[in-house]
Amino acid sequence: MTIALITGASSGIGTVYARRLAARGHDLVLVARATERLNALAGELRSAHGVAIEVITADLTDAAQTEPVAQRLRADPPIDILVNNAGAGLSGGLSHADPVALENLLRLNSLVPTLLTAAVLPGMLERGHGSIVNIASVLALLPEYSHGIYAATKSYVLTMSQSLHAEVVSRGIYVQAVLPVATRTEIYDRMGGDISKVPDVMEVDDLVDAALIGFDRKELVTIPPVPDAADWDAFERARMVLALGFSNSKPAKRYRS
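The chain above was modelled as a monomer; its predicted structure follows.
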């Protein structure tokens, strides 16, 4: 029986991942701030699927509360799947942002998935198998569409996933970056927004079901709303064409007077 640890499991994408993975027979470790919600979800999944559930209450913007989660990732029984889902948004641009809010967003969206991945990875490498799922955003590819640093945090998650994949794929570790489009979760309410004003919102169940198909196919990058995988392949080819110029030791002619 494999074990999956899911951050941000008390609502939205994390809750649906918990339900889907429990239905697949995985035991779970559920992590979030909302203890009552976690316990209710744990009871539901134990009853429905007969799986073992651990609950860890933690505010991952707090380093002291993050450490017990990292300790669980290093402990036995081992974690086979890490779903780095916990995240937040921040309304408004950078010029008037509260420094504490910026630091919390950077910690939750970028630093925490890095630290948790670093905690689980040595054991996975020793065993020769394991999966790490990082929830990013399509805004990682469209930073102009988002004010402030949210898109930058998700761009970090994407590039970390790509770099990690190159490092560990040959050693039996699977890494997936999931890039949701606007999805019907509580993140909008927490930011003081109104999701009813957001066009073309994807339902959470649809997002996670698509992400799990990508997981089963061992995709490195899964973008559920994109209709043709060839579009991503073309994007990657264009990136590699651009990279051909990176090895030049002199500035390009267009930069020389």
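The CA atoms of residues 12 and 185 lie 5 Å apart.
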